[in-house]
Amino acid sequence: MQNVPKIVRARLQRPLPATAEPHPDADLLTAFAEQSLAAQERGEVLEHLARCGECREVVVLALPATEAVALAGSGAPTRIGWLSWPVLRWGVVAAGILTVTSVGVLQYRQRLQEKTLVARSLMSRDQSSESPAQSPSSSALANTAKQTEGEKKSSGPDHSVLPTNKPGPRASGEASKAGAQTTAQNQTQDQLIQNQQAEPSQASVDFVNKAKSPPAQAFPPGMALAPALPRWTISASGALQRSLDGGKTWLDVAVAVNNSVNATKDDTSTTMKSAQAKPVPAPRTIFRAVSASSDALEVWAGGWGGALYHTLDGGNLWVRVLPSDAGVVLTGDILSIQFFDPRNCTVTTSNAEVWTTLDAGQTWHRASAGF
Amino acid sequence: MRATKPISAAVRSAVAGLLPELHAKSGCENIGLARESFAAILCEVATRYLPAGDTETEARTFLLTLRVEELALAQACAAGSNSAWELFLTRYREKLYQSALRIAREDSAARDLADSLYAELYGTTTRDGERISKLASFTGRGSLEGWLRTVLAQEFVNRYRRTKRLVSLEEESEDGIQFAAPAPEPLPPADSRLESSTDAALSALGREDRMVLAAYYLDGRTLAEIARMLGVHESTVSRKVDKLAKSLRKKILANLMQHGMARRQAEEALDVDVRDLQMDIRRNLAQDSPAAAFSDKKDALPRQNKVGPRAES
Q1: Low-confidence residues in chain A, pLDDT < 50
Q2: Which listed CATH number (1.10.150, 1.10.1740, 1.10.287, 1.20.1070) goes with B82-162+294-304?
Q3: Domain assignments of chain B as residue spans, ordered by start
Q4: Vertex B47, ends B46 and B53: CA angle to 5°?
Q5: CA–CA distance, A369 with A336 (Å, rounded to integer)
Q6: What residues of chain B lie within 8 A of the CB of A18, using their CB?
Q7: Cross-chain CB nearest to B310 (options A16, A25, A28)
Q8: Pick from B305, B283, B284, B287: nearest CA to B296
Q9: pLDDT tens by residue, A207-262
């Protein structure tokens, strides 16, 4: 703070004239300190205070304790400790709010989970009565609201939706090659699972066609996920499955594409083409890899023939992603998916390509892996 | 009780008009204060603070700002009502000791301070065989609790000053400005232009500004304390002090130059330590002359309004 010339102090300190007015009484000084004087009286008291050090001292000494001021003039001049009632009072209120909120959240989650489970169980009953190959209509059952419009277009040729229901129609050479590679990689994939277990932020499951093993066991035991969070896996038959009860029961998830995205990168420019204006249920895709974020909301799932799907809401709305780099489109079977954050994803294919994106799938970079 | 001023018709009719409302608010019944006594007290308080010639509307506005409940309690205590006294003790006894402790900052001194005030509140002083309580001087302008703190502070300052006067001159000079010791040698006459320029600059300031300057630079009060005195935010006081210090210097320089000083000369004069300049020591010492205590214990409400003149000598 700036200092004032000494002469100012000296002159400020001048004593009151002998004929000066008497000190304001205790009532006025109190009312002054409590800001309850009218302007004129306040001015008079201020005038006196400006010249009378004693009254200034009285006013300062008589100020209420600071805590009392905070209590809006209730005026308890006591020091308030941490364990005193005014503090505890708010503590009790805060604790109450916290309890109610957490109970509410837990209830909500539980109810949501129950609802989904009911829906899934209904769906699986339908599926079991039908042929093992999922028909578009059965998958539509789960997503009726989103898909009704798109039904009529589903049969039409569409480059973004895989026409394959089974691995059969695929080129046999490629398929066998892929099969050989996948079995060869079983060991490494399993190792990968073990490694990824160590990363708590990323619940990633790469599952490669483990013959006859029930999906629940596909998860390595001790996969430390909260029971409330969905888990993802691929069934033996290549269906994408989700568990809502920590791995006890697994239900197929129909990947219904609502908005296909065709990301093409022509050297410099990236064009986003919405290949389909209306949502269409995806035909049966054989999945080979799935990777979910720690909160299980963002999931990447990939399979044969370059099928790559992405969801940001835990599997309700899927987007088909078609990676392409300089005119080359990802067509190989996807063997593993790894993503580290919402933008950054790496996909490994059976034809030894590693596709990476740094912008959540808008543009991709292709590299040959060294296997 | 005697009033210093005659009660005006405006005050009378304002009190008459508001009496039912104020009486109900005051809770007089429970503490044994008659309605008529309460009306008389209201008249006295209004007459004491309102300037002569105020209208009835102004009297009404004034009466409505009073803390009638606390006023009634204090006056009932002073009148010797047992129930009022019990209520007073329940509400304020503990607070009184706590406030005394905050003011005196030392337990035995605090007890001493609070006990002596208790005696005054209860009314040990008798005149014409009548017990006079200090509570009779409470007028309800502020809270009773605040008033008790102020009375404690006044008593504390009075005591402090009394003991201070006994302190040796050497200690006083070490203590600093407020109790400045006379310089060992007579000082040369100062430039009167500097004094008059400073006085002119200071008197051009508002009351609040001067109060803030004095509290900050003379009393060494913190910005927070000044802010609480004025009921404003600390940052407001901070800005104000900064601005005042700058503008004061400029104004004094301008005044000095008006008095025919060259700028450089004026700046030099301003930067010289004032203690090297001659000062009217006698005038400074006059501040330490015996002044009246803050309150005259014997005075009940009607004559309490003007506390004794500053210099009795």
Answers
A1: 68-78, 131-176, 178-180, 182-184, 188, 192-193, 195-226, 259-281, 371
A2: 1.10.1740
A3: 9-78, 82-162+294-304, 188-278
A4: 110
A5: 12
A6: 286, 310-311
A7: A16
A8: B305
A9: 444 444 444 444 444 444 445 677 788 887 788 888 877 777 888 877 766 544 44
Cβ within 8 Å, pair A10-B65: no
Using an 8 Å Cβ cutoff, are A285 and A162 in contact? yes
A35/B218 touch (CB, cutoff 8 Å), yes or no: no
Q: How near does any CA of chain A get to the CA of B222, in Å? A: 10
Check residue B215 and report its DSSP letter: I
Interface with B, mutate which of A11, A19, A32, A41 (most B CBs under 10 A) = A11
Inter-chain CB proximity B98 and A34 less than 8 Å:
no
Q: b/e per residue, B155-191, with b = 16+ CB within 10 A?
A: bbbbbebeeeeeeeeeebeeeebbbbbeeeeeeeebb
ipTM above threshold 0.90: no
Q: Quick check: A30 and B152 CB within 8 A? A: no
Quote the minimal CA–CA distance from B69 to chain A in Å.
15
Among A29, A33, A27, A34, smallest CA distance to A48 is for A29
Q: Which two three-digit tokens encode residue A197?
A: 């277990």
Residues in A touching B153 (Cβ below 8 Å): 57-59, 61-62
| Neighbouring-strand partners of residue A126 | none
Task: Look over chain B and give the mean of its residue pLDDT values, rounded to a whole number.
Answer: 79
Q: How many CB atoms lie within 10 A of CB A283?
A: 21
d(CA B150, CA B142): 10
Q: Residue B136 pLDDT more than 80? A: yes
CA distance B159 to chain A (A): 12
The predicted structure's pLDDT at residue B69: 92
Instruction: State residue A48 phi and psi, 5-degree precision.
Output: -65, -45
- For residue B4, the chain A residues in CB contact (below 8 A) are none
In this predicted model, what pLDDT tens digit does every residue of B221-276 receive, in sequence order?
A: 999 999 999 999 999 999 999 999 889 888 988 988 888 888 888 888 777 654 44
A chain contacts of residue B91, beta-carbon cutoff 8 Å: none
Contacts of B240 in chain A (CB under 8 A): none
* Sequence-separated (6 or more) residues with CB below 8 Å from residue B103: A61, A62, B110, B113, B149, B152, B153, B156
In chain A, domain spans: 6-63, 139-368
pTM greater than 0.80 (yes/no): no
Do A50 and B211 count as a contact with CB atoms less than 8 A apart? yes
CATH 3.30.70.270 fits B188-278, yes or no: no
What value does the CA radius of gyration of chain A take, rounded to a whole number of Å?
A: 36
Task: From chain B, pick out residues whose CB is under 8 angstroms from the CB of A28.
Answer: 141
pLDDT tens, position by position, B153-184: 999 998 877 776 655 444 544 555 444 444 44
Per the DSSP assignment, residues forming a β-bridge with A324 are A329
Distance CA A99, CA A327 (A): 56
Closest CB from B177, B221, B249 relative to A60? B221
Give chain A positions within 8 Å (CB) of B275.
6
- Residue B310, pLDDT above cutoff 50: no
